[in-house]
Design goal:
single chain, mainly beta, 5-stranded antiparallel sheet, 4-stranded antiparallel sheet, rod-shaped
Length: about 375
């Protein structure tokens, strides 16, 4: 409600004027009704009950209040003690009044996040580092923290100064939402620190992972830590006169798994001096728990093979088979095979090389060979 008061002939009043106005909210801790006026000289709204030197406001009951008003223009404040002094100038200017509902509490705005809420990182790209920024109307220092929640795709770490570190899990993609708490550091004990919550949306962009190749014997991986290093296999030369010394054929389980559950295809470079055979290919998840006490050379992968798996074995696609290598008769020297797997998007795994060293065996009739030099 607004209204104006104009003194007749713009003559100053001989003393304070009394203005009665409705009290729409009554007595409560949060808000109160107050009379205010526009001070043309200062160009601002002021509480009218304060124009006589101190608050002169009366609660008349029945939702009615009244206030004594003195000078409403300029910065001159009339002392109530001197109101009898005829030299004092009271209300004399046309003034606009308004009845406001005002808060009893000191206004303190909550912090507001100003940095972009939507960020992204590529799958398996590492750790995302992002600087959060916020502002506060009163210029208070702001501390950042994470709300308590469960994260499904990675691990976040947020420092007080707003530096956010987020590390997605291996081969994970999708959208992760983080709830961020912005908390004021209040230096005034009379003002409760304000806080607010907001969310940060992190998009982990999917990328096609290459198939992971494996090679096992007795359920254990026989690849080196660097799978590009050749797997060395030593075999005794196969001749007609040393039947009792022939090495058994080389046997191993070779295969791959793919995180995107795409179809897998085995690609092979055949040996020059031997023959290969394979059992039927399997596409079901192998048993990757602890190996049994007695496992044979063609047992499904188990034991140390399970260490590189980042997911449940049923969450990936599989292709594996048992490989048999038979060396050629009377040949000694080197032979090799190369194997890799590709997926539906023609993305290839590491190439695994199996290097066969076929050791010469010239001794006839069960004789024992002796080397020609001493180590």
């Amino acid at each position: 409600m607004t209204f104006s008061v104009i003194p007749v002939g713009h003559l100053p009043m001989p003393g304070p004027i009394n203005i009665t106005y409705p009290d729409t909210v009554g007595e409560n801790e949060e808000t109160k009704t107050a009379l205010a006026h526009w001070n043309t000289g200062l160009q601002q709204w002021q509480l009218s009950s304060m124009t006589c030197g101190k608050a002169l406001e009366t609660d008349n009951g029945d939702k009615i209040k009244s206030a004594e008003v003195c000078k409403t223009w300029g910065d001159v404040v009339v002392d109530k003690i001197n109101q009898t002094d005829k030299s004092v100038s009271y209300f004399s200017e046309e003034t606009q009044f308004a009845v406001f509902i005002i808060s009893n509490k000191v206004y303190n705005s909550p912090p507001v996040l100003t940095s972009d809420r939507f960020i992204s990182i590529k799958e398996d790209e590492g750790t995302l580092q992002y600087q959060l920024e916020a502002t506060d109307e009163e210029g208070d220092v702001i501390k950042f923290s994470l709300a308590s929640q469960t994260y499904k795709l990675g691990k976040p770490l947020l420092f007080d100064d707003g530096i956010l570190l987020y590390t997605p899990c291996t081969d994970c993609s999708g959208v992760e939402t983080l709830t961020i708490i912005l908390q004021e550091v209040q230096t005034n004990d009379d003002i409760p620190p304000a806080s607010s919550e907001t969310t940060i949306v992190i998009t982990i962009i999917d990328s096609n992972d290459p198939p992971e190749i494996f090679l096992t014997q007795y359920g254990q991986s026989i690849l080196s830590s660097d799978p590009t290093e050749p797997v060395l296999v030593y075999l005794e030369q196969k001749t007609i006169f040393n039947l009792n010394k022939w090495a058994e054929e080389f046997t191993a389980v070779i295969g791959a798994f793919d995180m995107e559950q795409q179809n897998l295809f085995m690609n092979l470079q055949k040996p020059l001096h031997g023959t290969l055979m394979f059992t039927d290919e399997k596409t079901t998840a192998p048993i990757t728990l602890n190996c049994e006490t007695a496992v044979n050379v063609v047992s499904e992968p188990c034991g140390n093979f399970s260490k590189p798996l980042p997911h449940n074995t049923d969450a990936v696609s599989w292709l594996y088979t048992t490989l048999f290598y038979n060396q050629s008769m009377n040949y000694s020297g080197f032979d090799l095979i190369k194997v890799y797997f590709s997926d539906s998007m023609n993305i290839s795994s590491t190439v695994v090389t199996i290097q066969f060293i076929l050791m010469e065996s010239p001794c006839h009739n069960g004789g024992l060979c002796q080397r020609k030099w001493k180590p």
